[in-house]
Amino acid sequence: MERTKFILDEKEMPTHWYNIQADLPEPLPPLLHPGTKEPTRLPPPLFPEALNEQEFSQERWIEIPEEVQAIYRTWRPTLLHRAYRLEKALDTPAKIFFKYEGTSQAGSHKPNTAVAQAYYVKKEGFKRIATETGAGQWGSALSMGAMFFGLECKVYMVKVSYNQKPYRRILMETWGAKCVPSPSPDTKVGRDILARDPDCPGSLGIAISEALEDAFARDDTKYSIGSVVNHVLLHQTIVGEETRKQMEMADAYPDIIVGNIGGGSNFAGQFLPWIRDKISGAKPDLRIICVEPQACPSLTKGPYTWDYGDVAGLAPILKMYTLGHTFIPSPIHAGGLRYHGMAPIICHLYKLGLVEARAEYQVPVFEAGVKFARTEGIITAPEPCHNIKVAIDEALRCREAGEAKTILIAHSGHGHFDLAAYDEYLSGRLQDYEYPEEKVKEALASLPKV
Ligand SMILES: *Cc1c(COP(=O)(O)O)cnc(C)c1O
């Protein structure tokens, strides 16, 4: 009998995060200060010192603090599955594996960094943490992380998701956090936007600006970000490091790794531990495919340039593929993929030709999600449905070519709070959004002058 899932014992959980900066063929571009446009650290009042160090560290391995490991062990190691039923349904010779992060208490990969960030905030003596959230996954993960370390937590949630997904707010409140719809009247950024456009659906960029303003204003508060920056991608590498051990148990090595990219953290957490084999020349043919929505295609359509991480221009300026910090994407269900830019690490690797990118429409993406539910049983969040779509395309290509490739899907979370989106799909009401070329052109006109 062949094995369906690959189980690591708690004792085999990796004890170190992997820092890709030690192995990059060229160093990352610097962060620029939003005022002076000079290279800068992360703004010290916003972030714990330990995270600022991790952001720029060149150490290859960074030890996971014992207190963080102890909380990781409440749900980690997560399982690696072989998707036999999906393979059979596709009649493909490809071997399909997926690493499933939906079994954390919050239902996604996000607690991997939320727990670490809350730990450092507490350790450095602060009491409160402020953040933004898109679809609510990050806000709920941080609420849980803050709970474990006894911190207060304030979450600014993108209004369109706040209204579409009340259950995530209830999760946050159950874990003890305070959650408000963004733009909110609690900050100047929010009040200004509401004055111009009371019906503004919000965006991740706006919510980031509100959380930054909150944290700048209070001495007892640190800011926390769920994706994009280097230290977040670092914390997520526990996922890929576990998967490497599990693929070894399966006696397999991936030809293709596929994942969705919103800010880029979950997929980077899976592929960074593998890409070092491509950089070193050991696995030159390894393909890494980043999947984004057609409604917000930063890698596939945006220019590689300097842009603010947030709408108000309070955050550092990053070198990234961007649609412009003032761009507000259509309200697709994959709320976690509605960010105007992309993690600088992923942009750098894309520029160097080490990763590929593809953009998908949401109707075929949900079609793939339903196929996955009807074969593997798991109801998938809209974000990882994107990579399942591409994995299926690749598996069908293997069928045409008669090639038994090994495909690894980075499965970032379950869709139990996204059932309204499945309902829309199943009843034929779900619509695709075209790439909004005019809106992007407009947003690109307000890039910072560097
Ligand atoms: C937040 C989220 C994403 C997108 O964020 P990344 O930082 O790109 O990983 C993807 N999948 C799930 C389930 C999420 O919660």
Structure description:
By secondary structure, this protein is α/β, with parallel strands linked by helices. It folds into 2 domains: 5-10 and 76-107 and 238-444, Rossmann fold (3-Layer(aba) Sandwich); 17-64 and 110-224, Rossmann fold (3-Layer(aba) Sandwich). It is 40% helix and 17% strand. The protein has helices spanning 49-56, 66-72, 84-90, 111-123, 137-148, 159-164, 166-174, 188-196, 204-217, 230-249, 265-279, 298-301, 344-351, 362-373, 382-401, 419-426, 437-444; strands spanning 5-6, 16-18, 31-32, 39-40, 61-63, 80-82, 95-100, 128-133, 152-158, 178-182, 221-223, 256-260, 287-293, 304-308, 317-321, 356-360, 406-411. A 7-stranded mixed β-sheet has the order 1-6-7-17-12-13-16, with helices on both faces. Helix 11 links the parallel strand 12 and strand 13. Helix 14 (362-373) packs across helix 15 (382-401). It is globular. It starts with a strand and ends in a 6-residue tail after the last helix. The model has no long low-confidence stretch (mean pLDDT 95). The structure holds pyridoxal-5'-phosphate. Pyridoxal-5'-phosphate is lined by residues 108, 110, 137-138, 227, 260-266, 336-337, 381, 383-384, 412-413.
Which CATH architecture of the largest domain is right? 3-Layer(aba) Sandwich
Instruction: Identify every distinct bound molecule in the structure, by name, code or SMILES.
Output: pyridoxal-5'-phosphate
The share of residues in extended strands comes to 15-25%
By oligomeric state, this entry counts as: single chain
What name is given to the CATH topology of the largest domain?
Rossmann fold
N→C terminal distance: 60 Å
What is the rounded Rg? 20 Å
- pLDDT < 50 runs, ≥5 residues: none
Give the CATH level 1 class of the largest domain: Alpha Beta
Categorize the overall geometry. Answer: globular
Helical content class: 40-55%
Mean pLDDT: 95
Count of distinct strands: 17
Number of domain units: 2
Number of helices in the DSSP assignment: 17
- Largest sheet, spatial ordering of strands: 1-6-7-17-12-13-16
**Largest β-sheet summary:** 7 strands, mixed
Q: Look at the helices and sheets and give the structural class.
A: alpha/beta
